[in-house]
Structures are given as structure tokens and as C-alpha cells.
Prior knowledge:
heterodimer, B: mainly alpha, 2 domains, 84% helix, CHR_Transporter (chain B)
Amino acid sequence: MDKFLDLFKIFIAFFKIGAFSFGGGYAMLPFIEREIVNKNGWLSPKEFLDVLAISQVSPGPIAINSATFIGYKYNFILGSIFATLGVIFFSIIVINLVAPSLEKYKTNKNISTVFKTLRPITIGFILSAFYSTYEKSVSDLFSVCIFLVSFMLLNSKKIHPVFIIMFSGFIGIILKGA
Amino acid sequence: MLKLFLIFFKIGLVTFGGGYAMIPLIEKELVLKQRLVSEDEFLDYVSVAQSFPGAIAVNISLLLGYKFNKFIGSIVCVLGTILPSFTSILILSYFYNKNNTSSYLNGFFLGVRPVVASLLLYSFFRLSKKVEKNTLNILFLGISFILVTFFNVNPIYIIIIGGILGLWINS
């Protein structure tokens, strides 16, 4: 029974994350930080940063990757199944309800007004996620250099983020590892 | 059905970097190659998927699956999309949890963590370009940033109140 309650708890935590994050992967971060790191302590602040890096270098949607990863940390395979189901559950219900009358929802003025308002709010959340990530990860000359160079490379748009992450990881192994 | 599952499985397997990276791949497979969806319809699906809560890739595969085979179709497509992601992360998290004292792994993540910050800053600038710059939007952005960062307000309340305010101001 206790085990079932535990799994139900992680399902609900990710259900909340899936139901309130608008705009995909990055918009979820402040929710994950609050629900998983601050409130329940299932993940340390450092591990929270690793989740995003791992989600980026592994194929598939970031939301699914981070749910699976955090779920595994919490309760191995069962944990990852419940967390992943939690994060997609709200979408399954809502999209199946909306899909039959897509035209109606597309042209409904109130719905589009709400979504337009939520866009800048979501961007504010991403800025907030940046702020807390920067505070936790950029502290010395090494991390400042990696931060600046990777930002320039991302802006050049010619290099895929996966390669930038892998490359920075190797520099980390050489300079800070062994 | 199996064909649909395989198409979405393939898309899930080769996309790196989340939902937005998936959109052009879905377009290529379903609109251009298989001609199962028209260009206009596809754009509608993308905009609905973006505006509803949850992961964009998940929402798009649910919508397309529903179009082909109602509820069952939506489940089949979403399973196809998440299965490669689910299995690859299971393998990665197994190794992450087993070797978290390894100095190589520590070095790797010390190098990677600052990149996560720059990815978020990059995504912030890119998304900001897509939003109209008026006083109201800038106010909403600034206030939600301050409330979450410095006052530790639950983002769920900000979403609910923001949506209501948006309706009230525009009516």
C-alpha cells in the first residue's frame, strides 16, 4: 500500500507539471524545480541541472526524458513509468476532448486570448529558470568561459546543441575530471 | 496502426533537443512523404499543440493519432513518440545512478552545467522574438519572472491568474 502511495505521489507531481506548463520542455523547469527539488526533495539542485543536460543529449521530447529520469531516481522502473504517464496524462484527456471539434477551439476568441496572455508569462518562467541555473552552475573562470563560448556557438545556429553539450562535457572531463 | 506507431517511433528516435526539433520531422514524414495530412491541417495541429499545456511533441502525436483512429490512434501514436525516449533514458539513468561517484562523470557534468544555463538564455531570446513587444506583454513577463524567482510564488497560480487577467483586460 505504501509503495502504491509513493508511486501515486510521483504521478500527481508530474500530472501537475504536465497540466500547467505551456510551451513545452523549458517552460516545465520552474515547475519541476518547485515540485521535485524544493517541495519534495527527490532531486538535489545539482542533479536538477544534470536532468536537463541528459534530456538534451537523449532522443525524444525533453518533458518525457526528464520525467523518466526523475522517476527512475525516485523509484526505479516503476517510478519512471508513473512519472512519464503523469506528465502525458493531462494531454491525453484534453487533446482527445478537443480533437473532435478542433475548428471550434481554433476560432474561439476567449481561448486564443488566454493563450496569448500566457505566452509572455511562460517566457518569464524560462528567464527565471535561466537565473536559478546560472546561479548554481556559473561560479569560476572555467564555468564562465564554457557559458560564454557555448552561448556564442548556440547563437551561430550552425552547431547542434547536442554537440555543444558533448564537447563541453569532454572539456570538463579533461580539465576537472581525472 | 503498426505503420503509424513505427512512423512516430522513428521520429521520437531521431529527434534531439525536444518538441520543436520534432515539428519539421513530422512534417516531412506525414505531410510530404506519406501525404496523410495536408499542409494547412498540419499548421493547425501545430498551433493547437503549442497552445495547450504539456509537451508539444506529445500533443501533436495525440492530435494526429486521433485524426487517423480516434482514441486508440492517439494512444498508439503517443506511445510511439515516447518509447525511444523512455528506453534511452532508462539506460542513461541506470548508469548515472550507478556511477555518481566517478570523477570522470563529475567532470563531464561540471563542463555541461554552464551549457544548460546558456541553452535557457538562448531559448529565452528566441522565444521573446516571437512575442509582440507591447507594455502589457513586457509587464506580464517581468512580473512573472520576479514572482517566481524572488518571491517563490507557485507558477501554477501565476498561470491561472494570468489567464483570468488576460480575459478581463481584453473583454
